[in-house]
Design goal:
It is built from 5 helices and no strands. By secondary structure, the protein is mostly helical.
């Protein structure tokens, strides 16, 4: 867990310190999962091939651009809660539940991998939601709801490409 940004001021926003730190831990995991999925999606954008190249290249670009914006929102929420946001590859690797890409997957494997990644981010957000809701942290609940909605939508869009 990161320590408060200034070390000597208490953050008092109506959320008990232990609850606030628990929320920050969950947001840090969400940030790591989101950043890992962003990197994977961008990687696939660069390296996709095959008959669906144009469709996937553009879809992946749309998704990684939105994901890039979301990592900033998550990190800023962590800062608003008075903690430092993780930001190194080592920190993200230790926190993420999204496995790195192995080898050079084909387009269908990329899609399946991204569906799994989208679902992972949704599960991470959903796991934190109850904690944030319990302590009336509405800004975090709002952020989590928006992230779940977007990642569920992307998972649906990607799954539709795998249908016959």
């Amino acid at each position: 867990m990161n320590s408060p940004n200034n070390g000597n001021k208490m953050v008092d926003m109506g959320i008990a310190d232990d609850d606030r730190k628990q929320i920050v831990e969950g947001l840090s995991k969400l940030l790591a999962d989101s950043y890992s999925l962003y990197l994977k999606t961008h990687h696939y954008h660069w390296n996709v091939t095959g008959p669906m190249f144009q469709t996937l290249h553009l879809m992946f670009e749309t998704q990684y651009n939105e994901q890039w914006t979301s990592v900033d929102l998550i990190a800023e929420r962590i800062r608003a809660l008075g903690e430092l946001a993780p930001g190194s590859y080592a920190q993200f690797a230790a926190l993420t539940s999204i496995p790195p890409t192995v080898g050079n997957p084909n387009a269908a494997e990329m899609i399946r991998d991204l569906v799994a990644g989208q679902a992972t981010v949704v599960r991470t957000a959903r796991a934190l939601f109850l904690t944030a809701e319990k302590v009336n942290d509405q800004p975090t609940c709002d952020l989590l709801t928006q992230r779940m909605q977007m990642h569920e939508k992307y998972a649906w869009m990607l799954r539709s490409l795998l249908e016959n």
